[in-house]
Design brief:
This is F-box/LRR-repeat protein. The chain is an alpha/beta fold. It has helices at 16-31, 35-43, 47-52, 74-77, 90-106, 130-139, 197-206; strands spanning 69-73, 114-118, 143-152, 165-172, 187-191, 212-216. Helices cover 32% and strands 17% of the residues.
């Protein structure tokens, strides 16, 4: 009776080399995915991690600069390992990172389709984020979400005519007396903002393409139902 040559042979031992080969194969498989899927993957990462991918390979280098959407929150500004950030360092950290983000945005090849920012701005001047949002608006953002506790809404937003969907929350809404933007806004969501009746009415009147309006827990609004 013929013997079975592989019956009693020990299983092949996994080596460091074969582990690295398998990881490389996995990486190559991911790299072969279309840009649209890789953009989706990067959009789920923290901005720090997403930016690092530009150094992975030539295939990954152009992906972050052409990422159609980006979300910035407190973890983008502060080290997540710091359980108790020094409040005296926070303004310096935010301003420093804003400058870095502006450099990144200026190097982009395409405009953001969607840009979300959610940062606690207590203790900072109202215009500290203006330079960053100015770059985003000038580049032609279509969907913009701003949630900044204690922050006055950036004036560049009111002069942008590419925004189609605008969400503003947890901030003080001060509308300039003269507006030139917001004409393309189809969806406007205001949540937990402090805004005077006149400012709110003036802002809404400039949203010529308005199809959807949501006002949720807004403060100082008294006579909106009379308009």
């Amino acid at each position: 009776m013929a013997s079975e040559p592989h019956q009693n042979q020990p299983a092949k031992k996994q080596t460091v080399a074969t582990d690295q080969e398998e990881e490389q194969q996995d990486l190559d498989f991911i790299s072969r995915l279309p840009d649209e899927i890789l953009h989706t993957i990067l959009s789920e990462l923290e901005i720090r991690d997403a930016a690092v991918t530009t150094a992975v390979s030539k295939r990954w280098a152009p992906l972050f600069p052409t990422l159609p959407s980006l979300k910035i929150d407190d973890s983008s500004f502060f080290n997540p390992r710091d359980t108790e950030p020094d409040p005296f360092d926070e303004p310096h950290n935010i301003i420093k990172l804003v400058d870095s983000l502006i450099s990144v945005l200026n190097s982009r090849k395409t405009a953001f389709k969607k840009f979300d920012i959610e940062v606690d701005m207590h203790g900072l001047d109202a215009d500290d984020l203006d330079p960053l949002l100015d770059v985003v608006c000038v580049a032609g953002v279509e969907e913009l979400s701003i949630y900044n506790t204690g922050y006055q809404t950036s004036s560049p937003v009111f002069f942008c005519n590419t925004i189609v969907k605008l969400e503003i929350g947890s901030c003080r809404l001060v509308v300039p007396s003269k507006l030139t933007g917001l004409r393309a806004v189809k969806s406007l969501v205001l949540s937990s903002v402090a805004v005077a009746d006149d400012d709110l009415q003036r802002m809404i009147s400039w949203c010529k393409a308005m199809e959807k309006l949501s006002i949720i827990y807004c403060h100082k609004v008294k006579n909106m139902l009379d308009h």
